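Lecture 7 notes: from sequence to structure.

We start with a single chain of 527 residues. Read the sequence below before looking at the structure.
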Amino acid sequence: MATVRFACSCAYCTASSQQGRMCRTFMIATSLAAIKYLHPHSADPVAKDIRINFTLLERAVAQFDARFTLRALRSISSLRKRLTDRVLCSVIVLTYSPSNPTARVLMEAVNMDGEAIQAVVAQYKEEVQQNKTNTKEPIPEIDVYIAILIQVYLYDASDFEDGADFSATLVDKIRELNRRTLDSLAAKAYFYFSLFHEELDPKPPSKQSPVIDLRGKLLAALRSAVLRKDQDTQASVTTLLLRNYLSTADITQADLLVSQTQFPANAPNNQVARYLYYLGRIRAIQLSYTEAHEHLISATRKSPTNSVATGFYQASTKLLIVVELLMGDIPERAVFSQPRLERALEPYFRLIQAVRIGDLQGFLKIVQTFSSTFHRDGTYTLILRLRQNVIKTGIRMLSLSYSRISLRDICIRLGLESEESAEYIVAKAIRDGVIEASIDHEKGFMQTKQAGDVYATREPGEAFHERIRACLTLHDECVKAMRYPMNQHRLELKNAQEARERERELAKEIQEGDIDEDDAGGDFDGL
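Now the structure, written as tokens:
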């Protein structure tokens, strides 16, 4: 079989017009016309690894078991560093027949010219002849998997406009297919679909950002996923909508989404961690620090331990530290000594030092110095609320150091404007239970009450109960996260039903006298 060689030098191929795209599409179709399935063992090592995952996808469809699909998706993190346009082109020409329209769409998305395609065809000339009679078309799951790899390649290449257009076509195709074996793949496709639009100009939090136009399609996908009981897509789209609303500071709409929807109980662990993180951010903005603290603690515990998810672990830990400071607690020092957090949490460590000693001037200086970092982390507005906590912490430190201290000294040490403001702040701290003290308004001093025995209170028991509840919750979530083959119970019921039918036939034959009880029991020597 001779290799088709051509070099189009028309003006259309050098232009960016619609005719140029049509000409390039014709060149791609001509190249694919000379290609059949190729032997995977002589392909590029990366292409061979990709085609190995096709076997997992076929087993997932044959056995209706999503675990094989998840195994193929987990390999993307190791493949993405080695993905190139040539690798994707070789996978396409090794997989599809020349008449397959999906191959042309995928090849056009890779943005390879005709000469590069011909080089790939010439590389697998022998395999073309060996697989000339192979007319088997790939299953839709393989189409979507290759499309996801193209999404990853385009995103890493910063080709956001083409990636957004390609992703829009992909998610529409997935909705039309409506196959339950595509659920896990659809969740990943929607993830990159949203990610591409976030990178388009103008970027959030601008109200003209493309992410606002994206919400209608995401809400429609969420509605379809709920009706089809597609839990993977439901969990993914829910977290994407929360991320979308938070990017433009639409907290009210995000809260309405949380209240009007139910997050699937059997969602993947990574989606649960993302959902809890966004929920914790919403509750922190709404001043519900206790709820925010619980959600963020769960998010950090569910965060993966490998280096791939370091960014998420750092973001959730930063927000958790700020929430703990707003609650009046000081995070443990061991948090800042972790290798993954040591450098990222340095501004927050200095912030905690200022809050812990109640240094108001030092706190304001640190906020001003690292304002760009706090803005980038999305914690700046929450950190500005800590000013009152710094003053309360300073009053607490003074109450522990002095049994009696004048309001004038409090005003000087905390850098307050007047004694009246110091008196108001001390009174509010007493009312909130921050300190145990009393104010002598006539003589102008604060009298600290003698501290009692903390073990005589319910505080140790409550702390112990909280730890037990966290352990039990973790156990329950681990049990819920266990995955089993789908419809396995039906196979067991079928086997049990067949066994009962054999027993009935055996009992009927014994009754009719066709078989003796000794024969039914097999060879058996009595004792």
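Residues 1-42, 520-527 have pLDDT under 50 and may be disordered. Keep this in mind for problem set 3.
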